Amino acid sequence: MFTKSLFLVLGLSFTAPDARVWSYIIEATGKFSESGVFVLKPDSLYVRAIDPSRTAMIEFYIPKEAFESYEPVTERTVYLSMEDLSKILKSAGRSDKLTMSFSEDSIRIEFSDGVVTRMFKMPLRLEIAHEEIPSLEIEYPNKYVVSGDVLHEALASIEKVGDVLKVSGDESTLKLESVGDLGEAEVILSLERGVLREAEVRNPGFEVSYSIDYLSYMKKPIKSSDEVVVMVGSDLPICLELRFPSGSKLNYYVAPRTE
Predict the structure, then answer these.
(1) Measured between alpha carbons, how far is 200 from 145 in angstroms, rounded to an integer?
(2) d(CA 68, CA 35)
(3) Half-sphere exposure of residue 137, counting CA atoms within 13 Å on the CB side?
(4) Which of 145, 166, 146 is nearest to 215 (CA)?
(5) pTM
(6) Could you give the 3-state DSSP secondary structure of residue 206?
């Protein structure tokens, strides 16, 4: 039985208008990390996760204003199974709102399209293993701004060719190149042709390689974002900063490949 008062007594609940976006982000995170951490603060929510090899890390920031309702009155940190949560969120419909309410030992998850409400209850597994997640403060020499649709299409068009993604660029172009047994494929995003919205480059001529799988994990969140800031530099992790119309922001880091 779902006892609503049990969850609300802690004052820890929120309603997000875009359940499908949450589904995409949690599904993508579950592909490289078994667990994640929800940090609920009075003015914002953070979702963070890192993979065991420390190749990839995600931080999803949602300001209080992005929620339809947001009621954490105290700060709380909750560790969750990304795999278990993803299974539930996959049932989110296109027009569903998502409500999550936290008790001491479980989470109540609701989907509502204004007509039908579906409810799930998920236990908090207190014994769940979790990684310490570092804070990254990297000064990137190169930043490119592109729409989510364009970057999604670029990754989708080259991801099947190989398992290595080479990223290079100059003051006006960003090149994505996939290399593998099937050969090579490349996409060039140009400022002059209006594909890139902005380019801020202090290290032209850079080239760095990443595992293409880790970038492909984020295709759905990328497509649902308004724009993506691609931050990159020689020997640095790539950072994709996904910006959403609600004011939410997702930073996704992938470490470079070592030859």
Answers:
(1) 9
(2) 26
(3) 1
(4) 166
(5) 0.91
(6) strand
Residue 97 pairs in a beta bridge with 112
Domain covering 12-123 assigned CATH 3.40.1190.10 in the classification: no
* Phi, psi dihedral angles at 85 (to 5 degrees): -65, -35
Residue 114: both structure tokens together: 């204004």
| pLDDT single digits (tens) 110-129 | 999 999 999 999 988 765 65
Fold of the domain spanning 142-254: Proliferating Cell Nuclear Antigen (3.70.10)
Residues 6+ apart with CB under 8 A from 14: 40, 45, 67, 69, 70, 71, 72, 99, 100
Read off the amino acid at residue 222. I
Q: Where are the alpha helices (DSSP H) in 190-254?
A: 212-216, 219-224
Q: How is 123-171 classified by DSSP, letter by letter?
A: E--TT------PPP----SEEEEEEHHHHHHHHHHHTTT-SEEEEEE-S
Model confidence pLDDT, tens digit, residues 30-62: 999 999 999 999 999 999 999 999 999 999 999
Q: Which sequence spans correspond to the domains of the chain? A: 12-123, 142-254
